[in-house]
Amino acid sequence: MARTFEGRPSDAPFGAGKTLVMLVTNAGLSDPRVIRSMDTAHRAGFAVRLVCRALPKEKEKDAASAGTGVHRVPRFPGVALLKRLLAGRSAWGEGGPGFWLKPGELWILGGMTWFNLQAVWAMWRRPGDLYHANDLDTLPAGVLLSRLNKAPLLYDAHELFPDQFNGTSRQFRAILFGLEHRLIRFAHKVVTVNRSIAETLADWHRVPLPTVVMNCPLAVTTARPAPDGAGDFPARKARVIFQGVYVRDRGLEELILSAAGYDSAELYLRGYGELEPALRELVRVNGLEGRVRFLPPAHHAHLVESLVGFDIGVVSYRPTTVNNRLCLPNKAFEYLQAGLALAVSALPELTRLVEETGAGVLFDPDRPEDIARAINGLTADARRLADFKARSRAAGARFTWEAQGALPLRACYQELIGLALNGRGGRR
After folding, report:
1. Topology of 2-215+401-427 in CATH?
2. How many C-beta atoms lie closer than 10 Å to residue 295's C-beta?
3. Cβ 45 vs Cβ 15: under 8 Å
4. Could you read off the pLDDT of 248-288 as tens digits, one per residue?
5. Cβ pair 24, 31 in contact under 8 A
6. Calpha distance 276→252 (Å, rounded)
7. What's the chain's Rg over C-alpha atoms?
């Protein structure tokens, strides 16, 4: 399987001789959107300086070979002790949603404060020509560095950050909302991942409509699986896959229970996460070992290629928050590029994608029987399933980072550098 780079934007180096500072609170070099954004900046001529979270010592060697300048912020003091204290308890404390802040929420706010202070301390004497702040938890540092060094700031909202934590206190959500409402106005450009979130950010914060930079994977050419006696549908059961992190509100429990109603399909879960023990127990208790299988996670650079041999890709997210309801997960585009039929929750952006591509069906993620209905509708007719898969592969050629991500992001970078050169942007 080989990566293809057809249709890349022009490599005219308008960023030559300039430095872009990329801020992200995760490990950075394992975040596909951050990696693709850095690649886009490199191709525009920028030198990229990544400011991100520290890695465990055993992984530092691997990260050092990534070919970009990296500054790692040391971990928030007391993390290991706090994890031990909270072991076996809810991350948010007892009692469900309420008004007052809980221990886990204080931990998140403390970690955000620590990262931003450390990032500003490390970077304020090493000025950049453009700052790219990924998500709200880096925006304070982005604003301070932008104003200190009189350089433009791009705010990349990967999601509706204040709304992503289900079950948190109203006070916690209000703090995050107020922080974003205040600081987003200092960004010279705002980008986000889909139209619904762009419209919501504009409505919530009374700012211009953000630019949509879709979180699509790089274009890849995937090899089709070689037919064999037991591996070619319809001679075998159709293979249904969920690929991603096992966390709450992704409908994984309902998805597993739906497998009991499949007529001619088997379910695979590929990933990792805190829910894995509970999900495995759910499979065992319901006697679904013959219908549901767990696979080890794929490398983040080969998510599309790892889907070869499957027939249907599932996104079963539940609308438990506004952020979840308006999501358009990366995995949907990975399924398209791999040529899998889609079976997805009937949420606004996922519905839009299915209607635009004609590549799949919708279901109610809260009802296992409706998930089974959708899967059975795809697998009952081999020709119909093949047609959905062909439409998916055709759509996958359009939904690539080169077309839906790099082009608009590059245009934003070029606009911001133009503002800086003209004496505006961060100099206002």
Report:
1. Rossmann fold (3.40.50)
2. 12
3. yes
4. 899 999 999 999 999 999 999 999 999 999 999 999 999 99
5. yes
6. 10
7. 22
Q: Which of 250-261 are b and which e, b meaning 16 or more Cβ less than 10 Å from the residue's Cβ?
A: bbbbbbbbbbeb
Q: Which amino acid is at 333?
A: F
Rounded CA gap, 359 and 396, in Å? 10
Burial grade of 266 (CB within 10 A; 0-12, 13-18, 19 or more): middle
Q: Which token pair is 329?
A: 């997960």
Which residues partner with 344 through β-bridges?
315, 362
Residues 200-234: tens digit of each pLDDT: 999 999 999 999 999 999 988 655 554 433 345 55
pTM for the predicted model, two decimal places: 0.85
Domain ranges of the chain: 2-215+401-427, 220-396
Which CATH architecture is the domain 220-396 placed in? 3-Layer(aba) Sandwich (3.40)
Q: Which two tokens stand for residue 270?
A: 């590929």
Which residue shows structure tokens 């929750």? 345
